[in-house]
Amino acid sequence: MRTQPEPDKEILAITAVYAALKELDAPAQARVIEYVLKKLDLSLQTRSDRRADERQPDEIAKAPKHDESPGQNYVRRDSPSDEFTGVSPVAQRWVQRTGLTAKQLSSIFTLGGDEIDLVANKVPGKSARARMHSVFLLKGVAAYLGGGAARFAHDKVKETCVHYDAYDVANFAKSLKEFAPEVSGSKESGYTLTARGLSNAAELVKEMAGAKKSE
Questions:
Q1: How many CB atoms lie within 10 A of CB 201?
Q2: How many domains does the chain have?
Q3: What digits encode the pLDDT tens for the residues 3-13?
Q4: Cβ distance 188 to 125 under 8 Å?
């Protein structure tokens, strides 16, 4: 039995903030974000920028031209690379934390195109329910990679389930309830992966990529 990974606290925070803001209009979202930043005494300044501001002039003069501090490295990693073209910055950070690679992802999803989607030849699962579970996790990853939110519409995931022989119309609603710790939402509002869902989806991608390598 696979050990459940600890939920990522940053993903939990992102999920909660996104859920709270998604129904507001853009001006209201901006006001809320600005207020929270002030309450937490934060700014959008990067760690490397703050470090540079705090250094004395003689320290700045002695500093190497290519700052190899952790903050500077963090900023460089956030910059899009050719292998992650089209992947949202939020998802790029998630990829780094989970230890996934572009090679693993590109064996399952369409990276570098106009839209990131699931293109694996098959999905894990010996039953329709098990395959449906895999499809929901993978469609969430595809949406997260493309737009920074692991949210996808009912019609899209239904179409994908049919494609992978994972759509059991008689037990669809029952199976979806069983996925509740990993998937929230409804047919009308669409579905979103929870923090646990994203963590388990990362493990699923690794398993699929490893299986493809051994074939």
A1: 23
A2: 1
A3: 555 667 777 77
A4: no
